[in-house]
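User: I'm new to structure prediction. If I give you an amino acid sequence, what do you actually give back? Let's try with this one:
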Amino acid sequence: MKEIKNLKARLGKQRPDGWEELPDLALYMDQLISYMPRQLIPTEEGDALTAAMVNNYIKAGLLPRAEGKRYGRKHLAYLTAICALKPVLSMKELAALLNAVDNQHVVAEDWYAFFLGKLDESMSAVADSLDENAKEADLPALALRLALDSYVNKLACQRVLDLLEKQSKPAPPPAGEKKKKKKEGKED
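Assistant: Good question. You get back a string of structure tokens that encode the predicted 3D arrangement of the chain. For your 188 residues, that looks like this:
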């Protein structure tokens, strides 16, 4: 089927720009909005990035604030990740994931290279799994398999994000400590 063959080819080859290919000059909002569509394969017509979305990502702590109304490579890298992950993760889950990365003090360029590597692995695996000779009658089974893969991956992802959240919370004091502080009148 021609459409499956085209999808397989796009998944096999189309990738976001690497760090060095990202513009080295900071972009204004309108430039940023016009640049981002070339970073990912679009999923739907109405899913284009808007200035309001960028501002919401900044308010939610997913994206660093602009530097004098200009957005650099780090912004483009984070936006590429946000746009790739937002169809499958909630804002809260995205924040937990990106905060976990920030807490590890990973350099943005290194994190982006890691992200691109994982994206490449996933896209290549799905491309390899597509049968370009699929017939129209095969489409329901293909869609079901892909949907179930998404479901199982989402379940696993949520559990791992739960573990990350538990790791980021400070451990409660030992049982005897709280009682001891109460008796001493030092509990906050």
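You can read the tokens as a compact description of the fold. Here is one thing that stands out. The chain has eight helices and no strands.
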